[in-house]
Amino acid sequence: MSTETGTRAPSPTSDHSLALYRLMSKVHHGDKRVRKALSSGEAAMSYWPVDGHEAMSAGAMLALDDDDQLVTTYRGLGDVLAKGVDLPGYFAEILGRRAGLSRGKAGAMGIYDPAHGIAWTTGIVGAGPLIANGIALAAARRNTNQVVLVSFGDGATSIGYVHEAMNMAALWNLPVIFFCQNNAWAECTAQHRYTRTSRLSDRAQGYGMPGVTVDGADPHAVYDAVASAVARARSGQGPSFVEAVAYRLQGHYFGDAMGYADQDELAAKRADPPFTRFRQRLIADGVIADADLDAIDAEVAAEIDAAFTAAVASPPPDPAELTRDVFNANGSERSDMSRAAASGVPADRTGDTEEMGLVQAIHRTLDRAMAEDDSIVLLGEDIGDPSGGGMFKVTAGLSATYGEDRVLDTPIAESSIIGAAIGASLAGLRPVAELMFMDFLGVAMDQIANHAAKVRYLSGGRTGAPLVIRTMVGMGAGAQHSQAFEAWAMHTPGLKVVWPSTAADAAGLLNACLADDDPCLFIESMKLYYGGGKGPVPVADHVVPLGQADVKQQGSDVTVVTYGVMVHAALEAARELAEDGVSVEVVDLRTLVPLDVAAVLDSVRKTTRLVVAHESVGFCGPGAEIAATVGTELFGVLSAPIQRVAGTYTPVPRAATLEAACRPGAAQLVEAIRRIL
């Protein structure tokens, strides 16, 4: 369906009109109070004005039920005020105060108020729709009857994320409303300069959903369009796209003089603002007297002023707040990456075992976990049985057992996969998202680094993103399907990084990740799929706690610290050197974040020599961090310089001979160990 700009609901009731007016007044006076504080020097902060947006926010939010969910953006003051955000907490948050919703950690770009249906806010243009899909997926799965409205600006429609999200929402028939607040400017660029599409809602048809364009200065028109989309979503008919067209009356940010605008047009728009126009219409239609509207405005302004004044008076957060809420840390406030979250019951090494490969062990673990916990859902490309159960058959048979609503084949869209997993985790599910190759981490890194890893911190510890991202480091596939990016992941606070070397550890570590309340990147090695990781796996379920390294072989002359495929290379090197009387201790980190620094130091303190090894690029790799830590802590204990064995500073080549030269193995380890003996 599509309507022309200007359509509005006929004969609205007085109560309905006044409800819209009250919300518009709240948005108007909220924006005005913030800008006044910034102009006077009462407050200092980044702020993105919403003058001119009042009708869009009021109409859209009034169309939602209290339990319906909102995902909005950094320019979200109008949306969150109209949705009913806790005012003192909101103002304190955007000012960076201790009394803020997230204790000042998030600011305007991270408003989270689940008590009032504000599910998430993002400062990344266009990223919200991906997360909204996941929230809607959880609502549909749990039959909550909730609708998710995701609000974004017209400029966001140039971002691929929005198109990915629209395609996925339509494909899965999700109860999502894509609400585009077209304020005529993509930051500082006019619409005709970034797209040839005159009506952005026309794009909806390409994704199999209805689109409508309405007058964003008319709250009745906005309400009517959004209410229709809400009814459609709630009845199981899927997503809709609503474009509300208005004009932003202030700059992109506070202090932006809008020199890029046609000044005559801007002056004309400012002379007829939506709030004033709607007020005059109510009086002209005999809905309410001017004095009564003054009373409403005075009441709203007083409420806004009291909340803002209290927020200004709130002290800033204590510096100790800085390191809290990076990780769950089992309820503690520790956030450092060294053993920040060791948890679980260690494996029973004396119980019955069965011989398994890495693929079998991971499959069995997922199967058992899904049988035990129906909040676990899998998302990924080709992971369902109609598609073959994944390229490496890790998920084969699971969709037949648990249904395609729990094992979801996704479009080829890694950002959508991770975004949906984040949203689903915010809404109470425990998703396992598969990225077919680790190289594709780069495609989804915004969702991983800017969203999943920051949920706990930006929410002030009120929630986490309990999801697992399974990915695999390839081989024999060239420079874009064989890379290892664990250093990149380790450099992202809030993300746990796990890399097993054996089938037993894979099962135990995956169980730990599935139970963890923080996002976990679970890395698998393609090389270990084909026999290298095979071994005895406990028959009973077991957990390998995150943050606990394992000494795979005891030794006294030199310590090799490594993980993944290189554990097997280290054991091979140890066997070769044992023939010459050299005793090598092999420490398998298993978890890179949290990192078991204590186990590394204990081993090196005993042997006094260290070789750090990994197959990824050596320059700025994890080995550098480990070497620096050991060098600092055990400077007087070391008998020889620390050695690093790692991949070359090159892309991973396709030719087998070049790949063999690129990636280290037992020979390089033997050479490094002999060098320091």
From TrEMBL:
GO terms for biological process: tricarboxylic acid cycle. Gene3D superfamilies: 3.40.50.920, 3.40.50.970. Component of the branched-chain alpha-ketoacid dehydrogenase (BCKADH) complex, that catalyzes the overall conversion of branched-chain alpha-ketoacids to acyl-CoA and CO(2). This is 3-methyl-2-oxobutanoate dehydrogenase subunit beta. NCBIfam families: PRK09212.1. Its EC number is 1.2.4.4, 2.3.1.61. The keyword Cytoplasm does not apply. It catalyses: N(6)-[(R)-lipoyl]-L-lysyl-[protein] + 2-oxoglutarate + H(+) = N(6)-[(R)-S(8)-succinyldihydrolipoyl]-L-lysyl-[protein] + CO2; N(6)-[(R)-lipoyl]-L-lysyl-[protein] + 3-methyl-2-oxobutanoate + H(+) = N(6)-[(R)-S(8)-2-methylpropanoyldihydrolipoyl]-L-lysyl-[protein] + CO2. One of its GO terms (molecular function) is dihydrolipoyllysine-residue succinyltransferase activity. Pfam families: E1_dh, Transket_pyr, Transketolase_C. Its cofactor is Mg(2+); thiamine diphosphate. Heteromer of E1 alpha (BkdA) and beta (BkdB) subunits. Part of the BCKADH complex, consisting of multiple copies of BkdA/BkdB (E1), BkdC (E2) and Lpd (E3). Keywords: Acyltransferase, Oxidoreductase, Thiamine pyrophosphate, Transferase, Tricarboxylic acid cycle.
